[in-house]
Every structure is written in structure tokens, then in C-alpha cells.
Predict the structure.
Amino acid sequence: MLPFARVSIIGLGLIGSSIARAVRQHMPTVQLTGHDGDPAVRHRAREIDLVDDIADTPGAAVTDADLVILCVPVGAMGPVAEAIAPELPADAIVSDVGSSKAGVAAALAAALPGATIIPAHPVAGTENSGPDAGFASLFHGRWCILTPPEGASEAAVARLAAFWEGLGAKVETMDARHHDLVLAVTSHLPHLIAYTIVGTASDLEEVTQSEVIKYSAGGFRDFTRIAASDPTMWRDVFIANKDAVLEMLQRFSEDITALQRAIRWGDGDTLFELFTRTRAIRRSIIEQGQDDARPDFGRSHD
Ligand SMILES: NC(=O)C1=CN([C@@H]2O[C@H](COP(=O)(O)OP(=O)(O)OC[C@H]3O[C@@H](n4cnc5c(N)ncnc54)[C@H](O)[C@@H]3O)[C@@H](O)[C@H]2O)C=CC1
Ligand SMILES: O=C(O)C(=O)Cc1ccc(O)cc1
């Protein structure tokens, strides 16, 4: 028995289109409806037959749904929730996939009083955007974190968990604020660092742009992948998760200052001890099978 029969996806970019493809693959009897605010995306979604029905307004996309998933940038979650409010069936569950959770949860609760809202975050993605970037296996073996508000219906949480497990994800439940703190250090700060270092390299006067491209060794290349991530999405994440990001940035600044001091004073032991510890962390990630360097990662568009 499937947890939902009629799923509506608002926002048909990387994550929305990946959910659509995964639902088609794993739950082929589910009736899928989609909407995107960009007419070109709606046109493309029709062209590639992404879902069963594309609605021209957010409200029209949810009239029949028993699960509505908002897959838009976090800054657009509140306005989209307001737009679906008049048409939302009373028994529908509303969820989202935003990369930050506390602010989104507050925006959804304000826009949809009385609705069953279970926010979620599939911790899986790539630097690409748009309906052609998605793929059905994106969530396989990846975590999806649910952040139900206090007093949320356990049955609704269980149904949403079953949905994500059905798409191949592993599900964890967490408080929204804790989620935002954890993701600030594991995802948001790394993106900020990547944006910074690629910006710094391109601003240098004594090193030319073509030298940066020509001699970019492994480390810098990896940063450029992350720094190619969607500007709208990440602008919204940093604005929405301001407190947690600033807290982690403060810690990071202190730690990098300590390394600066170690380099200045030739304190090799401090550098060696840190690099040994970080190598062990990388190896344990690989041992747990959570490495994105899987041969087909981001390439398979099934
Ligand atoms: N990119 C990634 O790796 C991951 C992203 N997320 C979250 O998923 C959400 C979507 O991100 P992506 O799919 O990567 O972005 P995307 O840019 O590929 O797709 C977003 C879609 O939302 C549409 N949209 C924007 N504002 C809208 C509005 N007001 N009404 C209707 N449609 C609107 C855009 O036209 C676009 O097609 C974001 O909240 C992001 O934080 C979560 C996990 C991973
Ligand atoms: O492409 C990468 O390396 C990512 O880190 C993808 C990603 C981006 C945002 C999320 O909230 C979750 C995963």
C-alpha cells in the first residue's frame, strides 16, 4: 500500500524533477501533478513528460493532492504556500525540501494555519539546476531529514517517512533548529568557502584567469564544482539560516586563525595533527558508503 496516491510537486527544478522521476520509477501508480512559476520550465516539463499533469497556477496544482511538496528556493516557500492555501484539501500533507528548516517551517505555518505540515530535507543534490538536471536515483541511500513541529501527527510523519523510503532514502527525524546548526557546518559553510575561494582566485591581479583555469589542481577544481551551485538557491539559504551560519563562521574563523599562526611559526605538529584527524574523517565517510564519488553519481539520468 502506497503512502500517497496523488502527489503535487511545486517547483520542477533539480529536486522537484528528481522526485517526479523517482516517484514514476518506484510508485508508478501515483498520480503526479506539477507546477513551476517559470513558463519555460512548465513547457520543458510537458515536453519531457515529467508528470501526468502540469498546472498553470500553484493553486490548481494542489486541488486533488494528498501530498504537496514545495521544491522552490527557501525564500519562495512562504509566498508559494500562501498561493496554494485557498485550494489545499483539508486532509493533504504539505512538505518541502528546503536546505534550511526553521525559517521555512515558520513561513509555512503562517501561510497555512490548520494544515498538516511536515518539513523535510533530502540531503542529496548536485551543483546543477532545472528540470533536465534531475535523476531518479538521486535519493538512493541518502538521508532525508524530517523536522516535524512539536505535536505533529505521528501518522503523517510515518506516511512521509514511508514516501521517502520508497524513493530509496534513509529517514531521520530532527528538531528544525538542530538541523540548521548541523547543516550550517556540513553544507552551508562549505558552499560559502567554495564561493569565496573561487571568487578570491578570480580577483587576483598577479595571477591571470587563464592560469587559474589551466593550473587548477584537484582541490580547486572540487571547489569550482560547488561554487557553480545555483545563486538564487544559495542566496536564500544564507539569508534564511543566518544565525547558524554566522555561529559556524565564527568558529571557522577562529580555527583558520589558529592555522595561520601555526604556519607563521612553523608549528608543523599542529598542522600534522589536524591533517591526520581530517584524513580519518574522510576515510570513515567512505567506509560508510556516503561518498559522492560513486562512479555513476550525478551522471545517471534514469
Ligand atoms: N540543489 C540541491 O542540491 C538541493 C536543493 N535543495 C532545496 O531544494 C529546493 C529546490 O532547489 P533546486 O531544485 O536545486 O532548484 P532549481 O533552481 O533547480 O529549481 C527550483 C525551481 O523552482 C521554481 N520556482 C522558483 N520560485 C517559484 C515560485 N514562486 N513558484 C513556483 N516555482 C518557483 C524555479 O522556476 C525552478 O524551476 C531549494 O529549497 C533547495 O534549498 C535540497 C537538497 C539539495
Ligand atoms: O552538490 C553538492 O555537493 C551538494 O552539497 C548538494 C546539496 C546542496 C544542498 C543541500 O541542501 C543538499 C545537498
The mean pLDDT is 94.
